[in-house]
Amino acid sequence: MAKSPVEVNLIPIEATSETFADYGQIIEASRDGETFGPNDAQLDLSRGTPRLYIMPLQDTSFGFSKITHHANVTQCLGSIGAHVWYVGVAKPSLIEDDDERREDTVESKSGHLYAPPAVEEVRVFRISGTKFVKYNRGTWHVGPLFKESSMDFYNLELTDTDVVDETTYDFRKNNGSQSFASIFLWFTMAKSPVEVKLIPIEATPETFADYGQIIEASRDGASFGPDDAQLDLSRGTPRFYILRLEGRSLGFSNITHHANVTQCLGSIGAHVWYLGVAKPSLIEDDDDNGRRVDALESKSGHLYIPPAVEEIRVFRISGPKFVKLNRGTWHAGPLFRDGSSMDFYNLELTNTNEVDHTTHDFKKNNGVIFRFDP
């Protein structure tokens, strides 16, 4: 008996320069007279004759099983009228001449090599307003998808893109077997965030080492050593104060880093509290990461890479100890239960909250929120 395809429900993510960086660029309006820069579309039209035209489309379903890539061009698409539309995407998987050939390598009809996209890597993005999409060469994509009766798009590609450079992967056909149903992906316009459940990790010097230090009580008279907080307060005037917080839910969608200070936090009363974290992703002056397309500039001028959903952890801090966060460590909290209040001692700089507070919004940029149980 034929198997019905498994339906995978995707949650649309709002397309921004940050959220779309793995797939290409989101280009927004620039001022007249501005010089060319990294926020402009970085095009590769060198493999043929460019073609810019208006593409009329009829309304489409909010579901798909096929996804396509172009190996020879950085295609650009934008809605004429700045309507709301959607695209399904997966990261490029072209295998270049100097790449190691994989077991699952496939040769396209046009002769280039690629690895098939994985179901779990497919995302759907929502594009709205006066902006357009530039796909990286080889980005898997489906769409434009929309619910209007018809919509016109400007389309920049090559004259022969549709004829010789359209490689399609069929999830329904290629992901089915005698044991498993095939795959059909769909989504709705509702933008309810996906809830990611985290398991708290007990904070110890060993478990917290990637993010900073856990400092426990030391004997009176003990000399300074590696188990003491290794502080960097050199970029401003230190501020040590008591921070009073009201009870917060055991969940978060925003996460923050400070680029100029090794912040320290501890509960007065040695109560149990929690902290969401991700590893620092600052780009220093001598760091090669500065060439990454997903690098962002903060309001204070430093460069960083946005944190990834899969890198978020939650730690449980209990007893007479405090946390020292490495410079640039992403953090959310302190978090603790019910409506009571809790006091924390906090060591940072006098201007940390004003000029050194860079926040990433996972709900807006990634379509997820984080929850955990105590």
Automatic annotation (TrEMBL):
InterPro entries found in the cross-reference section: RmlC_Cupin_sf, Ureidoglycolate_lyase_dom_sf
UniProt-recorded Gene Ontology molecular function terms: ureidoglycolate hydrolase activity
SUPFAM superfamilies hit by this protein: RmlC-like cupins
Signal peptide: none
Transmembrane domains' residue ranges: none
Entry coiled-coil feature ranges: none
PANTHER family (alphabetical): UREIDOGLYCOLATE HYDROLASE (PTHR35721)
Protein's UniProt name: Ureidoglycolate hydrolase
